[in-house]
Design brief:
The structure is a single chain. The protein has about 130 residues and is an alpha+beta fold. The protein has one domain (about 20-120). It is built from 2 helices and 5 strands. The protein has helices at about 1-20, 30-40; strands at about 50-55, 65-75, 80-85, 90, 115-120. The protein has a 5-stranded antiparallel β-sheet, with no helix packed on it. β2 (about 65-75) and β3 (about 80-85) form a beta hairpin. The longest helix is centred in the N-terminal third of the chain and has 17 residues, at about 1-20. The protein is globular.
Length: about 130
């Protein structure tokens, strides 16, 4: 009986530790503040559900590598997402579901192609739909 109890505890521990947030391990752009922000409640109390990463290395008007993180909350009634730079500064709040520039309070086309957005984190605490 003790063996079964020990196995149960061992597998439970393994399961719980494997369910922690799975951030990309080799992403040099990903900062600790971005990870901490995603794992904390949003300013309005909502929970973050997804984090997308945008990288632009070249193109018209690009003089340096651009990296932004788009935070999507679990509240489906919210009309806007939050866009942060690597230092966790809020850049703007683009309209939810629109992955091209000039939406919400984003006054310039910072991102133009939805294919340039990569999902890098899904909140493991929220049930997948």
């Amino acid at each position: 009986m003790k063996v079964f109890a020990a196995l149960f505890i061992g597998f439970s521990f393994l399961f719980l530790t494997s369910c922690e947030s799975a951030w990309p391990k080799d992403d040099l752009d990903l900062t600790e503040c971005i990870q901490a922000k995603a794992e904390s409640p949003a300013d309005n109390g909502d929970t973050y559900k997804y984090v997308y990463k945008y990288v632009k290395k070249d193109g018209q008007g690009v003089t340096q590598k651009l990296v932004y993180f788009r935070f999507v909350t679990s509240n489906e009634a919210t009309d806007y997402d939050e866009l942060y730079d690597k230092a966790c500064n809020l850049v703007c709040e683009p309209q939810r579901g629109v992955y091209s520039g000039l939406t919400g309070d984003c006054a310039y086309p910072m991102f133009n192609d939805p294919q340039e957005w990569t999902l890098i984190w899904t909140n493991p605490k929220l049930k997948k739909n």
